[in-house]
Design brief:
With about 110 residues, the protein is of the alpha+beta class. It has helices at about 1-10, 30-35, 60-70; strands spanning about 40-45, 55, 80-85, 95-100.
Length: about 110
């Protein structure tokens, strides 16, 4: 059984536990500037509450843009969503903050 788990972990990676959302994380600028890996993702989401950095689809980005009362820019790769908390946090979503911000350059 442990051999099966080792093979699964090598093939698929290991899923970590959800972090306690105790907050005030800062995004890594080099990580934000990296090219997206997902075929259907258009930009990133960073959670200040738990420090998670995710790639999101256009559908997800449109929902977040509505929450931020903004429109998605055409140059998606130059922006990211800054949220607190995110869908992975253990904390409740009361007082959720969503902001579309430019990725710092230079």
């Amino acid at each position: 059984m442990s051999t099966d788990n080792g093979i699964r972990r090598k093939l698929f990676g290991q899923v970590g536990t959800i972090r306690d959302a105790d907050g005030n994380y800062e995004p890594s600028i080099p990580e934000l500037q990296k090219p997206l890996q997902g075929k259907s993702t258009i930009l990133r989401l960073f959670c200040r509450q738990c420090g998670t950095l995710l790639e999101i689809t256009e559908r997800e980005a449109k929902i977040l843009a509505l929450l931020d009362e903004t429109e998605l820019p055409e140059n998606h790769g130059e922006y990211y969503f800054d949220v607190s908390p995110c869908r992975l946090c253990k904390k409740n979503r009361i007082g959720q903050i969503v902001r579309l911000l430019p990725i710092p350059r230079g």
